[in-house]
Design goal:
This protein is an alpha/beta fold and 309 residues long. The chain has a domain of 180 residues: TIM Barrel (Alpha-Beta Barrel). The chain is 32% helix and 11% strand. It is built from 8 helices and 10 strands. The strands form 3 sheets. Strands 3, 4, 5, 8, 9 and 10 form a 6-stranded parallel beta sheet that branches. The protein has a two-stranded antiparallel ribbon with strand order 1-2. Strand 6, helix 6 and strand 7 form a beta-alpha-beta unit. The longest helix is centred in the middle third of the chain and has 19 residues. The N and C termini lie far apart (38 Å).
Amino acid sequence: MTMNKRWVAMALFVSVLLAGCGGAASNQTPPGSTPPASTDPADDPQPDPGSGAEEPGGEADPADPEDPADPADPAAWPDPADPTDAEPGGAAGDHPTDPGLPAVTWKPSGIGYPLVPSDPSVQQKVAMLTFDDGPSNYTPEVLDRLKEAGVKAVFFITGYGAAEHPELLKRIHEEGHLLGIHTMTHPNMTELSREEQIEEIQPLIDLITEVTGERPRYFRPPFGAYNGTLLATLDELGLELINWSNGSLDWEGVVDGYKDPNQVVADVLDQLHPGSVILAHDTMKHTAEAVPLIIEALRAEGYEFVVLP
């Protein structure tokens, strides 16, 4: 298919989404370590993302001189108390001592790194929930549990999820969560040209802008894989790459589409660290069931939940 034909197809896709007021039921639950069309992790040559042991923030091109130090090494993580390590920006939160001061915000200090506060004097244990691959049939339950707990999250949506459930995009936004981009079709972005990368991203920029009235700011690549070409494309489109530092492993050990939610919680706790950016998938029943358990467990450990600005 020529570039023009593919772009026209993308434009038609967006117009159909914007015109829709509901979506058909979807049984598609693509796990985080495989493309949407695959249900067997062995079918995909890419490494599993976010295990917390090898590539917690996704895979970078080893030949790219802009790649950060290994985010899997806690020694490389910035010290929230060190002013030289902190960067402005991040998730909204009240100032811990003086409500008259600007709100403290949180963002990762680098791709795949934990969150750090905009105010380096803040000593606070925080975590952020992020959900990939949706929306799906299980997204409403995830939203219900988040609302009950008073927690906000980031939803990195796909084109196929949005096509099935366009009504959920509005609900995600109206309930105070952030919408980010996870591509139209869940490809390995490092295997695409700049033009193909834009085709995977631009329709979702247009869609989210239409739904929310605001241009999206954050992008998560499938498999966490990125290279210099993708970083340049994202810079051109005004997007920031957000990977993760704590993988829930909700895609591993799944039997007949299900996994013990308590094991998902245990895997999150095994990798827990201050500033954890937690990867999960709102395309799985057991993940939806695990959400309130994760929130309860982290709060018991003294953590508060934040979200990107």
